[in-house]
Structure formats: structure tokens, C-alpha cells
Amino acid sequence: MNILVAGGAGYIGSHCCKMLQAKGYHPVVLDNLHTGFRGSVKWGTFVQGDVGDRKVLDSLFSTYAIKAVMHFAAFAYVGESVESPAKYYENNVAQTVILLKAMVEHEVKNFIFSSSAATYGNPLTIPITESHPQQPVNPYGHSKLMVEQMLKDFDRAYGFPHVCLRYFNAAGADEEGETGEVHNPETHLIPLVFQTALGIRDSLRIYGADYPTSDGTCVRDYIHVTDLCTAHILALEWLLEGNKSRAFNLGNERGYSVKEIVAIAEKVIGLEVKTKPAPRRAGDPPVLISSSAQIKTALGWCPEHSDIEDILRTAWHWERKWRGLYNSG
User: Distance between CA 164 and CA 167 in Å, rounded?
Assistant: First the structure.
């Protein structure tokens, strides 16, 4: 069964491709390699192109009997979205419209969307449930929410079953070290912590120490990428069984501050991580912690890597083994 994985050369997409193939599916990876890496495409068929290129999409849907689409192809830097909103609306929203329209015309249904906890904005209650008001505080969050709304409208108009998975903070790496987190530039906390420990960076910048949290730094809910991808497979099976469209949170229901992550990382790796204070970044909510009760009940999802030390250990293994793999781009 062919599954189109848009953005399959990226961090989460490549992990999902590995899991899809292990489950007997055939991933068809569509990626323009703007932020993804050709070396991460080790499972399935690779097609280089934009998710909004109609000629490429028409060719894909005509060549392969695509049964479902997993959509990971988005820009995902909060700070950049504040500085360059046009870039985010064009890539995350406008190109997705083209993809959805092509799917409708080729009668391809079953859509799994990589959404975000950023759609909730500043939380009114903790933990955040799926019924929490969606009030994004940055263009990145707005772009994800716009796609969620489009999917609802497509479903009403065309019968377009979909699952929106609202990620909290994806982290960690494949246990076997075959794929992991690589960004250029890197902005995610955990790889930055390890790059600092390895001396690749002089220090780790901590953006804001005056948030209303226990130690003044932002608190986030970290979910292992393997557990996140397991949820995608369950969502795929949910749709293939003919179930209705749903939205689910994906998190571990436990928050850690920036300073806590640094301290736990130092314990895991036995190295010091030098830190440096920096001003707050625009658009960063103080606390984001998930309630994942709905996906556990509906899909039977059960995270197997919820321990934060386990998450950090796999990320550290990846960083040491593969950090030079993509230096040439």
C-alpha cells in the first residue's frame, strides 16, 4: 500500500518512513530538500519536488495508487515566522491548498496532518486538552490552524477523512541510530544542548529567564519521535478502517523547563553544558503541557519512551554518531 509522505526527508518524516516500511507499507517520499536531507531517505521511493507543484503531484498520483498522505512539509521556526510571516503562509498554507486540491481531483483521501500545540497559543489551563480554545500567538501557529480549518471544510464539501496530530515537542532519535534530528540552522533545545557539550557551540543561549515558571525558563512537554510516529501509524489505520476525522494531542503529559533539560542532559552524558542568558523570543508561550488522554482512548496509543532520560539518551547517541553526516548539505 503506497503512502505519500510529504516532507519525508526531514526529522519526523524519515522516522515515519522507517516505521511505515516495517509495517508493510510503501512510503513514497516527496521532498524539495529545502530543510530535509537526501541521506535521510532510506525507506521507500524518493521524488524531489515541492508539495505545491501541481505537475509533480499529478505525476505522483497517476503513477502510484496512493492510499493516504502524511503531511510533514512545513516550515517550523516560531521566531522566523514572526519575522517572515509571508514565507510561512505561502509554504505552510498556500502550498497545502494545492496538495489538497490535487488529492480531491485524483480521488485520494485519508490525510494525516502534522499540526502543532502552537495552535493553542498561551494556555488558559494546564494540561491542554483538544477542547482548549485555539488562539495562536505567532504566524507558525496560525498557519497550522488555517490548515486544520481547511481540512474541516474539505471534509464537509468532499468527504475528506483526516487526522490532525497536534505535536508538543518532538525529541529523541531512532534507537538504531539510522535517522535523527538534523536542522540547518539548528534551533531545537536538545540538539543545541548536546552540540554545546561537544564544543561545537561555545554556549547554549537560554531565551528568557523571567517567565512565570518555577525557575523562570519556558516549560515544554517532550515526546519521543518514535512514539510520535507510532501515533501516525495508528491514525493511518484509524482512517483506513473508515473512521471519522479527528484531532489529537501528542505529548507525554509532563513538562520540563529549559534549565531542567540542561541539568538532566548533564547527568545523562556526564559533561558540562555552558549556558548564556538571552532575551525572550517573540511568540514563545511560558508553558505547554499536553493532555493526551483522547488518543490513548480512541487509538490505543501508549508511549514506550516517555522517560526524559531515555529521550535524551537516544538523542545523544544520534548526535555523537551522525553529527558529521550532513556537513556538506
Answer: 9
Q: Can you tell me whether residue 46 is helix, strand or coil?
A: strand
Residue 264 in grid coordinates: 538532566
Closest Cα partner for 290 from 246, 253, 248, 247?
253
Name the residue among 195, 100, 104, 84 with its Cα closest to residue 150: 100
Q: Are residues 278 and 244 in the same domain?
A: no
Q: How confident is the model over 13-53, as pLDDT tens digits?
A: 999 999 999 999 999 999 999 989 899 999 999 999 999 99
Rounded-to-integer distance, Cα 109 and Cα 123, Å: 33
Residues of the domain holding 288:
189-220+253-322
Tell me, yes or no, whether 154 and 228 share the same domain.
yes
User: Do 304 and 201 share a structural domain?
Assistant: yes
Same domain for 99 and 230, yes or no, is yes
Q: Provide the grid cell at 82.
A: 514572526
Which residues are marked as active site?
A: 140
Residue appearing with cell numbers 474539505: 154
pLDDT digits (tens, 9 = 90+) for 200-257: 999 999 999 999 999 999 999 999 999 999 999 999 999 999 999 999 999 999 999 9
Query: Kindly report the CA angle at 75 between 71 and 80, in degrees rounded to 5?
Result: 160
Q: Specify if 290 maps to a domain.
A: yes
Number of domains in the chain: 2
Same domain for 237 and 270, yes or no, is: no
**CA proximity to 322, closest of 170, 180, 174, 176:** 180
